[in-house]
Amino acid sequence: MVFWGTIFLCAVYSASTLLKNNLKCTFTTISSMKRSGRIVIVFFAMLCMVLHARAQKRNSLLIGDDKLELFIDTRSSKTEIEALLKKAGLKSPNASAVLQGDFTSLKKDGWVMIEKRGTIIEFQRSLKDLNLNPQLHPYLVTANVKDDDDGSPGYPADVNFGINNFNKVTVHDLPSGLTRFFVPGYQQNRRMLLSGDFNNWSTLKGSMTKTDSGWIADVKLKPGKHEYKFIADGHWMGDRYNNLMSDHDNNAIYYRYNYTFKLNGYANARKITLAGSFNNWDANNIVMEKKAGVWQKQLYLHEGTQAYRFLVDGKWITDPANPNTIKDADGNTNSVLNLGETVLFTLDGYQNAQKVYVAGGFNNWKPGEILLSKTKTGWTLPLIIPAGNYGYKFIVDGNWITDPKNPRNMEEGGIVNSYISVKPNYTFKLSGFANAKSVRLAGSFNNFNQFGYTLAFNGKEWTVDVNLKPGKQLYKFIVDGKWIIDPGNKLYEPNQYNSGNSVLWIE
């Protein structure tokens, strides 16, 4: 009996130590057990719990009691650790360093290591530092976190157009340029969070402010489609006033608008709709609204070239305020709208050429679509292109050529094309290597293509501009065929080739 009691107590102690506060267990004291069979049953039950706990990777993030508690299991993969650190709100999570025992990134964000028990390391951070409302009872944040996020912080989903649909408007744009999210009621709640693709579905950063009528949070959003949810005292919930929901996870959808279509006149018209290339020419789903004598419709519209028309009481018309028109394959005349950055394409010489076109990824490489104008010194054309990285070529009387004035190239389908970045948000630089014949850039943004993007040398350093999505980017330079990490960037992580990749975080 003493033997079984000793084992039982050991099992209880081990389980309570391993599980800490994550599991609540009620144990029956040995003195209350009159039959050894009960002890054996309880012992095996506890033993199973201990073995199960040991078999699980116990990464967790708890919030409550005026502090955050972070538990990291060093048996976990780098991906698992990085996801956990991201949910914990670290500005620059470095999973590789943490797994190697370097907790600098955690310390910089105010985390203090409390203790290490086997493979489990516990960190704590005061909620007062985060200016958050504390919880009466702790709850497990990581149990409610979605792991497969489609969006990236501040980078909306790629859609052609979008229009909001609310029963009661709970999200709207402010004159300051911020977007306000509002949760009516819930006055009895102690804490409300806003979580979405714009803050990487954070469970810590989206603290909302309590008002006399509900909760509000102001966020800076880019135009486009955004998904979001609210977290009320640890419980995820959707926006009950929003009629737009995602196909997965029932996330609410909000479109930040960037364009307003307007049609003056037609005061006696009964119904006017808008149709275009962005909505597959559906004449029924975008109804114009009459405001102050002007028919208008505000919406999100993807950058690029968009053709459109108005349908006024059953009759198609082009936009009288827009002189830009084009005929489609059926002979219909449509108004044309160009959204994006203006890029000036120039080709010097070729005075004897009959026609010069430009084609690239921005027009799906259609060869006879974009015609340049002839000048005294060559050919030129200003063209509006959406933000992104593109390959392009000139077509001179049917012959495809790269841009002689552009030293930067890229490879697509085994073909070398000139390279251009529209609205770049980062410049890669490599100092030195003055005697190198070629320096290229490859990374997660171009699938680590071994040809990469060609850098140009300015006498001091090699540079190339790139348009990158916010979030984590991996990259390397290729100097005369040799792959190297960025000597000017201290952030790197191991790869499958044991050679490492440089790490870049884009806000």
Automatic annotation (TrEMBL):
Q: Which residues form the AMP-activated protein kinase glycogen-binding domain?
A: 190-252, 268-340, 351-425, 435-500
Record-linked InterPro entries: AMPK1_CBM (IPR032640), CRP1_MDG1_kinase (IPR050827), Ig-like_fold (IPR013783), Ig_E-set (IPR014756)
Matching entries from CDD domains are given as: E_set_AMPKbeta_like_N
Pfam families tied to this protein: AMPK1_CBM
Keyword Nucleotidyltransferase tagged: no
Signal peptide feature range: none
* Chain ranges passing through the membrane: 38-55
Q: Which domain of life is it from?
A: Bacteria
The answer to keyword Disulfide bond applying to this record is no
Q: Which UniProt keywords apply?
A: Membrane, Transmembrane, Transmembrane helix
UniProt family annotation:
Belongs to the 5'-AMP-activated protein kinase beta subunit family.
Q: What is this protein called?
A: AMP-activated protein kinase glycogen-binding domain-containing protein
What are the top taxonomic ranks of the organism? Bacteria, Pseudomonadati, Bacteroidota, Sphingobacteriia, Sphingobacteriales
